[in-house]
Input
Amino acid sequence: MYVAIARPGAAAFGVESNQSVWRAARATLGDTSPDHADWTGFAFGEPSITPLSDGSWLVVFWCIQADGQGVRFVKISPA
Output
């Protein structure tokens, strides 16, 4: 899963950073391809991102993986 930091402007989208914040051991629940056409088989969900008072972000998402299922989170700090 990637998180991008962008500051859109009139002329460009302004991507400042695009980083991997979590890697699924298994991208889909079955034997399907992990591209957009098979989105109902994904083994993790789109993240929700909340800015925190210390300048970092809390990234929360659901997942179904071999080592467990439920809601996971990652706290990231911008570089």
Notes: The radius of gyration is 15 Å. Residues 22-76 form one domain.
